[in-house]
Amino acid sequence: MDKMKVTLQYWIPQHGLTRLMGKLASAKMGSLTTAVIRWFIKQYNVNMDDAVHSDPAYFNSFNEFFVRELKEGVRPITEGNSVIVHPADARTSQFGPIENGRLIQAKGHDFSAKELLGGDKALADEFINGEFATLYLSPRDYHRVHMPCDGILRQMIYVPGDLFSVNPLTAANVPNLFARNERVVCIFDTEFGPMAQVLVGATIVGSIEVVWDGTITPPTGSSVHRWNYDTKGEKAIRLKKGEEMGRFKLGSTVINLFAKNQIRFDSSMEEGEVTVLGTPYAHQLKADTLHSDKTKTSAQLSEQ
User: Fold this and answer.
1) Could you say which protein family the record assigns here (predicted)?
2) Which of 37, 40, 115, 149 stands 20 to 30 A from 65 (CA)?
């Protein structure tokens, strides 16, 4: 059955189905919309207690519900300049070193940073021997994506591609999944060096949006498109740690890339574990801790 689910994705019209679902999700159908939202909440055990508006009848469309705003203070952002925080409510799919320019997708599968970043070798070289993490946002999760640290936007890249599902089953069975799906790559300059935050599209993900430029997809394109931004002066786009930077309309995946010798993931990180927006994700490596025991806790690191 699992093999059939994966094989079917090669045959369905991924972009056509996604456009159709996007239109339906944006439709304002009154009581029918409310009924669908109520079913979805029950089906996926969505926690509405954290939402500013918890009544399904408040939302005019399914997409309004899906990108619902959270109450102030329910996701406190961990303070400290050396602490990088989780950018989303999600689940850790994979994390670890970028070895020989490649990232782990799932057991038996990997993919290249160059392909992920739209074929830009010079950009991929900035992350050689760095660290990466892949975070899967399930249907029940909050679908706004936030900044893991302070950053200045340097570049955004739209990379066209397929729209396979990005759930664990597909990740374990479709080679090169994250480097073949449609995606929006955001490159930030930070005090930890360059940081990539990649928003990966998927089947029935009707839209990927960013706060500085609105909807990036749809419409979809057939070629890579790049935007370069001023990083100095009044025109620079500066975002603070914990600030919203983008959102998915229906679930997907976020991938972070960090440069070599800049960060160490928090000791609480485990494959398959739930992540909570604003909680510790990684810590800055000080010059005097680069060669220290990697089993040290974040508390020990902060004392050095």
Assistant:
1) Belongs to the phosphatidylserine decarboxylase family. PSD-B subfamily. Prokaryotic type I sub-subfamily.
2) 149
